[in-house]
C-alpha cells in the first residue's frame, strides 16, 4: 500500500481543481497557463503528489503552490480482495467518515465503481447503503481521489468507471460532473464518454441538467414496472413518477441513435419478478432505446427481501429478449467481501435525523 499524503489544513485542495482551474491558479501565481496543464498531468496522469518531484515546474512556482494550495487525498484505509478478482477499497476522509470503492475485473474490462456521497438519503428499501443514513456529499477531490488511488493500485489503468458506489450521484451534481470531466480528460484518466456511466435512482430535473453539461452513459435504477410498486421500492418515485422519469431518460439519449438507457432492475423474490411484471416492463419501455441489467438481489444483514431463483430470473430475461429488449443478468461479484451492488456501507455518521429532510439541489427548484 502506498503512503498517502494527508494534509488537513484549510488551503484549497489541488485535487478539487479542473484543468482550467489549474491553469488559472498558476496564471495567478505569475506564470503561463501551460504550467497548469503540467501540474494537472503530474497529479492525475503520473500520480505524483510531491511538488518537488514535479521537475518541469520552476522552483518559484513550486514554492508559490506550496504557500497557496495543498494536495489532499482520501486515505486508503483497507483493501479487501475477493477470490473472483474483485477488490473493495475503504477510504477514510479527513473527518473520519469512510467510503467504499470497488474494482471489478471482467475480461479486458477493469471497472471502478465510485462513491459520490457519504451514505445516501434516498432510502431505497433493498439497499444497505440506505440503512447507513446520510452524512454529506463528497468533494471533487474525494471522488476523483478514489480513481487516483485505483489507478495507482492496479497494474493496468481502469477502462471503465461507474458512478454506482455509495450515494446518489445526481444529488451531488456539481462535484460529480466535475469529477467525471477529469476522468475523461486526456491529461488525466483518458476515459471515453461511453466508458463513464452515471447511475441514478431518477432525479428527473437533474437528468435534464446532466444532458446540458455532459454526455456520459446513463443508467437508471428502475426496479419496478409501475408506480405503485416503485413508490415502495424506490421512494424518490413519489416525487418523480414514471410518467416524468421515462421522457427525461428518452430525451437524454435522443440526440445519438446509438445510445441506450441502461435500466437496472434488482430481482426480488416474489416482489417484482413475475412474467406479468416483465410484460408491464415491456409496455413501459416501448419507444425508449433500452438495455436492461437484471441484478440478483444481494442480501445483507437485516434485509427483508430474498433473491429470485435463477430460473425465474432467466424466464424474465427471455421474456424481455423476445420482445426485442436486450437484457442481461449481472453476475454477482465481490459478495464474499460485501462489495456487491447495494452492499457498500462504509462508516457513516448519520446526520439526517439531526438535520431533517435532506434537500437536493436541482438547479431549477429545490426538491425536498
Ligand atoms: N443511487 C444510485 C447509485 C447506486 S448504484 C442509483 O440508485 O442508481 C447501485 C445499484 O445497485 C443500483 O441500481 C441499486 O438500486 C442497486 N442495489 C442496491 N441495493 C442492492 C442489493 N441489495 N442487491 C442488488 N442491487 C442493489
UniProtKB/TrEMBL annotation:
Enzyme class: transferase
Localization terms from the record: Cytoplasm
Enzymatic reactions: adenosine(37) in tRNA + 2 reduced [2Fe-2S]-[ferredoxin] + 2 S-adenosyl-L-methionine = 2-methyladenosine(37) in tRNA + 5'-deoxyadenosine + L-methionine + 2 oxidized [2Fe-2S]-[ferredoxin] + S-adenosyl-L-homocysteine; adenosine(2503) in 23S rRNA + 2 reduced [2Fe-2S]-[ferredoxin] + 2 S-adenosyl-L-methionine = 2-methyladenosine(2503) in 23S rRNA + 5'-deoxyadenosine + L-methionine + 2 oxidized [2Fe-2S]-[ferredoxin] + S-adenosyl-L-homocysteine
Residue stretches making up the Radical SAM core domain: 106-336
A cellular component annotation (GO) from this entry: cytoplasm
GO molecular function, one term: rRNA (adenine(2503)-C2-)-methyltransferase activity
Residues that coordinate or bind [4Fe-4S] cluster: 120, 124, 127
The record's free-text note on cofactor binding: Binds 1 [4Fe-4S] cluster. The cluster is coordinated with 3 cysteines and an exchangeable S-adenosyl-L-methionine.
EC numbers, comma separated: 2.1.1.192
GO biological process, one term: rRNA base methylation
Keywords: 4Fe-4S, Cytoplasm, Disulfide bond, Iron, Iron-sulfur, Metal-binding, Methyltransferase, rRNA processing, S-adenosyl-L-methionine, Transferase, tRNA processing
Protein origin, superkingdom: Bacteria
Cofactor(s) needed by this chain: [4Fe-4S] cluster
Binding site for S-adenosyl-L-methionine: 167-168, 199, 221-223, 298
Catalytic residue positions: 100 (proton acceptor), 341 (s-methylcysteine intermediate)
Purpose of the protein: Specifically methylates position 2 of adenine 2503 in 23S rRNA and position 2 of adenine 37 in tRNAs. m2A2503 modification seems to play a crucial role in the proofreading step occurring at the peptidyl transferase center and thus would serve to optimize ribosomal fidelity.
Family from the record: Belongs to the radical SAM superfamily. RlmN family.
Protein name as it appears in the record: Dual-specificity RNA methyltransferase RlmN
Organism, as annotated: Thiobaca trueperi
